[in-house]
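ugh finaly. both done.
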Amino acid sequence: MSQEPVWIHPVVTDAQGRPLDVMELRGLTVDVIVGLYNRERVTPQPLRLDVALFLDARQAAVGGRLANTVHYGRLAGELRFLLDACRFELLESAAEAVCRYLLAPPTDAAPHAPLHAATVRVTKPEALTGWAIPSLQVHRTAAEMVYRTDAKPFGHVDIIHEGATYGVYRLRVEPGGGIPPRADGHTEGMELVLGAGLVLQGQPLGRGMAFSGPEVFGHGYDNPTATEQTVLGVYRPRLVLSGAGGAGETTAPVGPGRQYYLPE
């Protein structure tokens, strides 16, 4: 059995100088498109992801509420979704995108404890065919992260990360709002529903359901609930934050989706 690699991350303290608690999620391995070379752009290979989240778990320990900590089961599904959808060219891009997603402020649909910092390590175990194992570890703080949010007729769009050929966004749909079919000239997209309550063309959606392909831009979402709902989207090219749909845009049929959350 191979030995677990040593993982060292910094000590992070709160405003009172107390060391923060650390939640780790190790060994998340997904076969994905990652790399610059032609063979890496067509053949999936394993990418291993390890994350350490720095937070104060005291309130969760006393109150017993998941909203006061991090739901690591759902987070694992969201990270798998990002690895599947982004098709990173570099380990640097993968690590930065994951850090920016982890440290983004929570939403009403996916509440969690505030994260003060994150350490992320990405590893390509088969990249060098056994000669060596390349990996990259980065550490980022929430204080250094800056996110742009654009107001839209349906609510807001959070720009989480934009790479060379893709973008990662959160589409936040206000209560009673809806995202109509879009026609922004995109060629590909993946969307993951983070909350429970959205309706896709008359069909109720459970949290953790994802859809992929060009047809996602023909999907129309409605939020009949009293809580803001969130869709995590990865699009290529980057999202055009112009219109919110209108005449001439057609509704696409809802194809089979994929569930990224484990049963609860």
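ok and the 2nd:
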Amino acid sequence: MTWAVDLQPNDIVAPLPNKNYVTVSYLNTGNSTLYKNGAAQAGNPVIDTQSAIFRGTRTYDLGSLPAVSFIQMPYGSIQPAGSLASQASATGVGDLTIATAIWPYHNRATRTYLGLAGYLISPTGSYSSQRAFNVSENRFRTDLQMGFQTPITSSIDGMIAVDTMWFGGNSQCAATCNSLTNVSLNQKPLTTTQLGPIYRINEIFTVGASYFYVAGGATSINNNYMNNVANTQRFLLSGQAHTPIGRFSLQYGRDTEIKNGFVQNRLLAIRLMKEF
């Protein structure tokens, strides 16, 4: 599996200090055709995933720099179907994420921001080596991200972010690694670049569009290189509404080109973030 940090519009904007937020998200994704080195494989695999994600966030000043930290816990299910119908489904708690970001440069007058973020994902979720699909990856992951946002016009900003994820080893990989016994799974770093415009329609509504390029992430099983580098392109459309209840967000995206893995034909995310 590959994983990246998708940003919402204005996530790169430095926050005001001493704020607390709770965010509840629902994600629905669908994956289908398996690709190997750019060639579609036979069969009609279907992988439907649903998850609820709960996040608690605190903003503060770290010296003179704006900063934010959050802790996040998902709960989800994976339902294989089609030619994967014989595979077991999985339901349970996912992997815990802890993240902190700081802004070395932040100029609210010019709407220009440079942010740095670090993420730690711990293998706290439900996992069985006898299942090919799990809500946990049974390994630690770390990610470093840098994002920059600046105005293009009076109402349109441009953003670009780059993150690289590093993966710990999974020494209990069986079904996912097509093995009857546990073997060792290792993965090369995975780098994601995302960029696009953000349009502020008015005080309430904001929309954005992002293009993603994902590269790297080749795996090895018992030190045998699998030749499955990710070269994936995808898009993500975002909309936000600031209401008295909180900030509602809606995102939709999908893969447009993939070299290795199951192509993602649907990503739908709905979020509510509320200050308290």
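summary for the 2nd one i guess: The chain has a mean pLDDT of 96.
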